[in-house]
Specification:
heterodimer, A: two-stranded antiparallel sheet, 76% helix, B: MetI-like fold, 0% strand
Amino acid sequence: MSQANADGILAAKKADKIPSILIKDLKRNKYVYLMILPVIAYYLIFHYWPMYGATIAFKDYSLGKGINGSEWVGFKYFLEFFNSHYFYRVLNNTIMINLYQLAFGFPIPIIFAILLNEVTNRKFKVTVQTISYMPHFISTMVVAGLIIAFTARDGVINDILGLFGVSPTNLLSKPELFQPIFIISEIWQKMGWESIIYLAALTSIDQELYQAATIDGAGRFKKILHVTLPGILPTITILLILQIGQMMNVGYEKIILLYSPNVYGTADVISSFVYRKGLVEFNFSYSTAVGLFNSVINFILLIIANWTSRFLSETSLW
Amino acid sequence: MLTLRKTAGEKIFNFFNTLLMIFVIIITLYPLLHVLFASISQPSRLIQHQGIILWPMGISFKSYNIVFKYPMIISGYLNTIFYVLAGTTLNLIMTVLAAYVLSRKQVYLKNIIMFFIVFTMFFQGGMIPLYLLIKDLGLRDNRWALILPVAVSAWNIIITRTSFQSVPDSLEESARIDGAKDFTILFRIMIPLCRPVLAVMVLFYGVAHWNTWFSAMLYFRNRDLYPLQLVLREILIISDVTSMTQGVSAIDAEPIGQTIKYATIVVATIPIMCVYPFLQKYFVKGVMIGAIKG
């Protein structure tokens, strides 16, 4: 008998055994499986059924005919999206907001954590830290309300700009200002909170390294550069990768609260476009196609991020 | 630590670093103080004022009076309390059940179920298919529409499972010898031992329910069901205060409209501002657990 044949028989025997193991397992653990049944039902109904529902991206969906009754149209709506000027616009805005986020939103919590760590007075340090978390506990709605009130024509920012002779305008309705305002508000909300992880990483740096550096004559700045920064580099790498994996999920709820037709050119991102096409204009199939495009890109990014993170540090999502 | 004489460079660094931290405090606190001061200012004086506010412009609680009497604020608050309590309770039950089962060693289908759950973190059907599902289930204009679709989060299952896995096996084994079944092990061993992580879960889920507005906007036409955040949207974003300023003379309506917005922000934010300093250690712990597993 050849080796391949023997392997085949073994595999067949194994496959034969699986059902019997499974039946035994189901019998023994029937209450355990019963416990997780509601969770499985939840995922089937509220996650897997919508995945099936996403097939309307390839159909001419109408409410009357339902998901199954509607006609297949293939990639019609995808092509319509790719060929429209919206495609370039929403993709460009999504990427631009992300690049700003990476350039400013990502490093600022790191710098803040490092500098806060250098504060020698413990009480002052804790006070700054507690206050810096505060914006995290304010709801998106209230933050959006604050932004609208402060950037309004008679808002406090225009009042201050007026002292320098700038004539007041509604700042949020200026296309060139939308993205900066959005990013600045994101930094305000998240800086303190996102520094938590780095502060924790900083406390785990071996204190002897600092003493050695001091003996070698390194000053404050050199110690930050040669001890602190390398010490938290693994944390920075992981969070950077995770952030890139999240790229397609811009905080669209806040964008929807802040934008107006004037600034769609710079404010409209893929998710806000999906919302408007689908639930304001009721173009279900088209909107689902755009959303599916977003999900697929997101999926690929996450897989790459997860794989890279596992490769670099042996930590991954699961 | 070695103590060395501080050099001039050190001193300059410390000075500017402290200055920077004070700047961070001001930037963080000022917008909130501005709102607080503006909300108790006299409406007519506030509207004439230009620039930053360092102290209330006179004292008037008129706008608070209006806010507290506005039925939508009250119903919004009550609805949100319901969504937070009912939602978080369901979340906790589902999370604990899933985490317990997935932390078992001798459950054959464990990995398949795990994959089945984690996959939903990577790929979603999207906004429209979920909306159509809610509609088909008859959940539009139904309170459960804010609770059932977010009954459990895969991420929180992972965190809780990791914590359950860290409970020593010997405890469970001796309980089994004493005749304990799964439910007893879950309620008598796992839950009491993992209480800190479950506290974190309550906070994570609770905050998520508190902040919800988008799905409420999609699924609710009936304003009686609106959570607080969606009521805030009408007042702060759409800037519709006409129903609140009814009975106020036309001249006063505009200035008081301003202070009403600020008073609304205060009313909707104060409860959290008062509790967060006490809860923050749990949140910080939660971020850390997520990071270790992340």
